[in-house]
Every structure is written in C-alpha cells, then in structure tokens.
Write a structure and sequence with these properties.
The chain is of the alpha/beta class. It contains seven helices and four strands; from the N terminus they run ααβαβαβαβαα. The protein has a four-stranded parallel beta sheet. The radius of gyration is 22 Å and the shape is globular.
Length: 184
C-alpha cells in the first residue's frame, strides 16, 4: 500500500509541476501573472510634500516586469483617471485604471462626481476615507493633518452612508441607481 501512495504522490506532483510550470517560474510569479492590483497608491497622492513609497510610473514599470495584468491607481484626494490614461498610453500591455474617492474635496456623496469620473474612465468608485465620520471620530484626521491643513474645515462631522434608521442615505442610493449600469 505504501508503494502505491509513493507512486500516486509522484504522479500528482509531476502533474502539478506540469500544470503550474513550477520548473520555469516560482509560484509567486505564477500567482501575480495577469493579476490586477485593486489598490495601488502612487505619487503624487496626498501632497507633493508627502513622499509616497512609489511613483505612478514605477508602479507601471514593476507591474510590466512582473507580467501583471495591471492596477487601479487610488488617491484619497484626487481622481486618478488622467494619471491612469497617461500611463496606459506609455504601457499599452497593462490595464491601468483610474478611480475616485468620494471625500469632501471632490464633493462627497455626489452622483455628478461619480458620473463625471466614469465618463473620464474611472473603473473603481471608493466611498469616503478620511472624510468619513467614522474615520474622523476614530483617528481625528491624524494621518492627513500635516498634509491637509483644511481637514478641520470639513463642513460637517464627516460623511455617513446610512440614515439613523440604518437605511442607505438618499445620496448613496442615487449614486448606486444612476450608475449601476455604467460599464466600468
């Protein structure tokens, strides 16, 4: 019986190696091949004074070298569709997508901002981050305070998605309804 298990294990291991081409590429290379990173912060992001870990074009270069499928550029401050479009032109083998984060500086929960972003090529719509009531109450804006001196001027105590009843706010419903058939 043990001889059968050894043969069975060897056959399965050989089959797995053939299937995954383990002799040619590492498992990490295989897993990242054609992957899309949905949350890639580049530079510039929060401020020119805040040096991110990596510049947008460096993301693209690395993604191409790793044979990734592409990535979504995320910014907490500004929509990234123009940056994505420019990089897409420079790296046509990748799929580079723009996004918008619905913080106060882009109008918060604005169906118009979302529709405009989609028209400019946004593929991901992020709900508020630093402008959310939860984030303000929990962190007090500490992550962005030195880069965003206006954070104390947010007109409300932060953006919330739910009514007191627990239902979605009308603005959130409008964003979803008006954009649910958008090809993103």
């Amino acid at each position: 019986m043990s001889e059968f298990k050894d043969i069975y294990s060897q056959v399965n291991e050989n089959h797995l190696q053939e299937k995954l081409c383990l002799d040619e590429k590492s498992i990490e290379d295989q897993l990242i091949a054609n992957a899309i990173d949905l949350h890639a912060h580049g530079f510039p992001e929060v401020s020119l004074n805040y040096r991110g870990r990596i510049k947008d074009y460096e993301w693209a270069k690395i993604a191409q070298e790793l044979k990734m499928g592409g990535f979504v550029i995320k910014s907490h401050i500004w929509p990234t569709m123009e940056r994505a479009y420019m990089l897409q032109c420079l790296y046509p083998k990748l799929r580079i997508y723009g996004s918008i984060t619905l913080n106060p500086n882009v109008g918060g929960l604005s169906a118009w901002a979302v529709q405009s972003a989609i028209q400019l090529g946004a593929k991901v719509i992020w709900f508020p981050t630093w402008g959310a009531k939860y984030d303000i109450e929990k962190y007090g804006g500490k992550y962005f305070r030195s880069y965003l001196p206006f954070i104390d001027k947010i007109p409300s105590k932060g953006i919330i998605l739910l009514e007191d009843s627990g239902d979605l706010k009308s603005e959130v419903k409008e964003i979803i309804e008006r954009n649910r058939f958008a090809v993103v």
